[in-house]
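Comment thread on ticket #2218

A.B. wrote:
> Attaching the input chain for the structure job we discussed in standup.
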Amino acid sequence: MYRAWKESAGPIGALLVAASWMGCGGATVTGSPGSDAGARAYEACTGPGQCLALVPGCCGGCGAPTLADVAGVNSTQVDAFRAATCGDPHPVCPACPTMLEPNLVAFCEAERCTPLDVRKDDLSACSQDADCMLRDPACCEACNPQPFGLIAIAKARAAEYRAQACTPSQACSKCMPMYPEGWAAVCGADGHCQATQRNNVCPAMQPNPGDSCALDPTVTCEYGDDIRTGCRARVTCSAGVWQTEDPGCTPLPAPGVQGCPTAASTDPCPTDGLACGLGSDSGCVCTACSGPCSQFPHWACSVPPTTPGCSARPPQLGSACSTENLVCTYGPMCAPPFAAARRCKDGAWIDEPLACPV
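C.D. wrote:
> Ran it. Output below, let me know if you need it in another format.
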């Protein structure tokens, strides 16, 4: 359930059509949301996908609106809302700039368009950067969302968000949103996802080879979630275009297949270099050098790191991070293909070299 907000905090909708009549700052208001039966009528709703975000009055406020500045309005009642809150046919608005705030949305709760701020709601709750994703706040995301309209939500709540933002029968384009270069979702210090811009952050979705780019050519972008980091696609921006290197690895044998162990083990093994899958986030490799090298190979198995802030699998190179200098180590130590380390540097994950004993 979404958090109930105070009656005095006006709602705002997921769709940004409010911009169509948000002018220069200031407001001339003849009524306030919820102050009488006529005003309450435009807040009524019967299901998801019906609520819009509108600022009461004849003029928009100065700067970006807050939750208390806006009202939730049924999309069929926009004219009634404006008539109720703006009685001056020729308002004089102060000459100050206004801004849209995409994180303010309204959903239909208890037959009323009810406000929430995505940045403070459970929709964006997180414990690590890997919990977060970018999103266009509208029901149907644009194929090429604009930076000023992005929000960040928890991946685990994506279906819930869509169910509230869309009508039950609403169909969207099948295009995959291509978020602006340099924008990413990270887990903030307050435990909520936030959209952020950084010059060294890779696009959230893997770009097409040959498309134009402006990312620092020294930045390596990694795509895919294979626990073998060497089996992920690597993309760089070279001479103004994206170039892709795809290693094309075959899937790991499953536990008990091709001589693989059925559980984590340190037993001797027959084939040096044999790598095996072991559950969703772990693997084992037959090696004589998982640390100081020995004469006979044995199984060396990885487990997800326990360091706070580290994801179960190695984060993608070039993806955004929020805990500067956090180092996450994945193992078994010095045993390819599972050994890897990542450091959060200047807001993005980079490769951290491993010092291996000999």
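A.B. wrote:
> Thanks. Noting for the ticket: The chain has a mean pLDDT of 84.
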